[in-house]
Design goal:
515 residues, RNA-binding, mainly alpha, Arc Repressor Mutant, subunit A, 3-stranded antiparallel beta sheet
RNA sequence: AGACUGUUAGUGUAAUUCGAAACACGCCUGAUUUUCAUUCAGGUAAUACGGGUUCAAAUCCCGUACAGUCUACCA
């Protein structure tokens, strides 16, 4: 399928209108993988031709996301490059000449219709049960340089009347292109609208800017979401009319990411509704103050997010599921990208994250988790934190689980598991537990192993039964029935803390029974 | 309404030129564990529907249904 030898240059071209959606991250990922796989160049281009939708902070959000995921562009606004600028608003001056070129070639025309007139046209069509199209069939009835007299047009132009430039689509053409994901796709030109190329403010629309930039930046492959498939014939026509068809990039349209339940594509609302992130990083809308949760803040490792995303619409054809970025680059191919939309599955995302946490070394985990300790106002030595991480690492599915599951390593128990206390604590058994505490107090040195043998010996010697004693032992120290070896926990806590916790716990248990 | 794209267990995906529907997540059972998690051993469940072509169809063809995307001076 590699048709020519020109070097691979791909771009990720988001609009800075808000936080990058997780689907956008996947598009960036596939572009990145494809570029790296073929020794090509990955470019970040900001498509900000719509000034009304500009959002403060969106551009840096995009950059930060790419950095967090480990897919840095080689050319961008920040980095520069031989084909800059990389922001469309800074390229404004370039686009008009191409619109003019099309105008001269008779492939485009001026249109003077006001937005009211266009609305009217649409409503009329709607009333007739169809959707309006400004194109081959209707352009004769509209106010444009095709329908108006030459004098009228000149007069309007001279008077400075606002105008747009629209593409003049020829009737009866067949547009065929090879999509790397979907194969041969065919459209009839009569179905294509005379899209606006240059807006009345002089800014190009997406369509013009995109084609001009891709051409000028020598983009070899356009890898983007499926929502662009219907406008691709328009783009092909643009390449054709501009005389660039022989260097036109190859297209690949990626399947959409769908809602976990119901139908439609994944949206911010799904995240709110089901309590999972749909954005890579936290985002706060600067104007509304609205916030959105990110995978990063939710305690996901970037490696896990990348791995998970890679599998949403692609698979290597083997049974391997855990892929580092290097592995992905090695195995990725657009030919193995799926055609059907992929449903977002948060359970699977969590599974990936858990795998990556388990794989992490205690030292790495400690680094990731330290901010949580600090945020709760505690300090710990690296070695102690690492030991705790070793104890907890198989029990965390996200980093945020660390504090939730292990806070008792740093502070007093907040709450005792009521069921266990109710079932296992008997007032008349108090002496047994007091003796247990004495036993523990005599353990020296206070290692997990020593505590375990002594405590178990005590239980066995007095035929008390593990099930009657150990739950109270655990709950007294940690408050919960979940967690790592309680003897290791005790050792780490230190004798002094352990004895103190027994004391307060037993008092609380007694009180709960009497009260 | 039209154009385009799609449809394999609940979910993500496999299945060389038609040739036993497989893997993972989830869920359930059991083992291990003082508990939870991990690990291990099992189990669960699918080719949207209807026609054709063929010795043989998830795979090719036709139709139907359903779904999605697009049809902005948004991208």
């Amino acid at each position: 399928m590699s048709q020519n030898n020109k070097s691979v240059r791909v771009r990720f071209a988001p609009s800075p209108t808000g936080p990058l959606h997780i689907g956008g991250v996947r598009t960036a990922l596939y572009n990145y993988l494809f570029a790296k796989k073929h020794g090509g160049t990955f470019i970040l281009r900001i498509e900000d031709t719509d000034q009304t939708r500009f959002t403060e902070g969106a551009e840096s959000y995009i950059e930060e996301t790419l950095e967090w995921c480990g897919m840095l562009p080689q050319e961008s606004t920040k980095l520069g490059g031989d084909f800059g600028p990389y922001k469309q608003s800074e390229r404004k001056a370039m686009y008009k000449q191409y619109a003019d070129q099309l105008l001269e070639a008779g492939k485009a025309y001026y249109a003077f219709d006001t937005s009211e007139e266009l609305v009217e046209m649409r409503e009329a069509a709607k009333a007739a049960g169809s959707v309006a199209k400004y194109g081959i069939a209707s352009r004769g009835q509209m106010k444009n340089s095709l329908a108006l007299s030459a004098e009228d047009v000149q007069e309007r132009l001279d008077s400075g009347a606002p105008y747009v430039i629209r593409l003049k689509v020829n009737s009866g053409e067949t547009v065929v292109f090879e999509d790397m994901v979907r194969g041969l796709v065919r459209f009839q030109s009569d179905e294509i609208d005379d899209k606006i190329l240059l807006k009345s403010d002089g800014m190009p629309t997406y369509h013009l800017a995109n084609i001009v930039d891709d051409h000028l930046m020598q983009i070899s492959h356009v890898i983007r979401g499926e929502e662009w498939l219907p406008s691709t014939p328009l783009h092909v026509l643009l390449y054709r009319y501009l005389g660039w068809e022989d260097t036109m990039p190859t297209f690949a349209h990626l399947p959409l990411i769908l809602k976990p339940v119901g139908s439609g594509k994944l949206s911010k609302r799904d995240g709110d509704k089901h309590g999972f992130p749909v954005f890579p990083l936290d985002w706060k809308n600067p104007t509304t103050g609205e916030t959105a949760m990110g995978f990063r803040e939710r305690g996901f490792l970037p490696e896990a997010v990348v791995n998970f995303l890679a599998f949403l619409g692609w698979n290597p054809g083997t049974e391997q599921e855990l892929f580092s970025m290097e592995d992905l680059i090695e195995s990725f191919s657009l030919e193995r990208v799926n055609k059907a939309g992929a449903r977002f599955n948060f359970d699977k995302a969590k599974w990936f994250n858990q795998q990556y946490i388990i794989q992490s070394s205690d030292a790495d985990l400690a680094k990731m988790v330290r901010p949580q300790v600090a945020a709760n106002g505690h300090e710990v030595e690296d070695s102690a934190l690492e030991t705790i991480c070793g104890l907890l690492n198989e029990r965390m599915t996200t980093l945020s689980d660390f504090w939730e599951q292990g806070y008792y390593f740093f502070e007093d128990v907040k709450e005792y598991d009521r069921k266990t206390v109710k079932k296992k604590w008997k007032l008349d058994k108090r002496p047994i537990f007091d003796t247990l505490v004495e036993t523990v107090a005599n353990v020296e040195p206070f290692t997990g192993e020593n505590i375990e043998t002594q405590v178990k010996a005590y239980i066995n010697d007095n035929q008390l039964g593990f099930g009657n004693i150990l739950p109270i032992f655990r709950v007294s120290l940690t408050g919960t029935m979940k967690g790592p070896s309680i003897f290791d926990v005790a050792s780490l806590l230190g004798k002094e803390t352990v004895l103190k916790r027994f004391e307060t716990a037993f008092a609380a248990f007694d009180a709960s029974k009497q009260g």
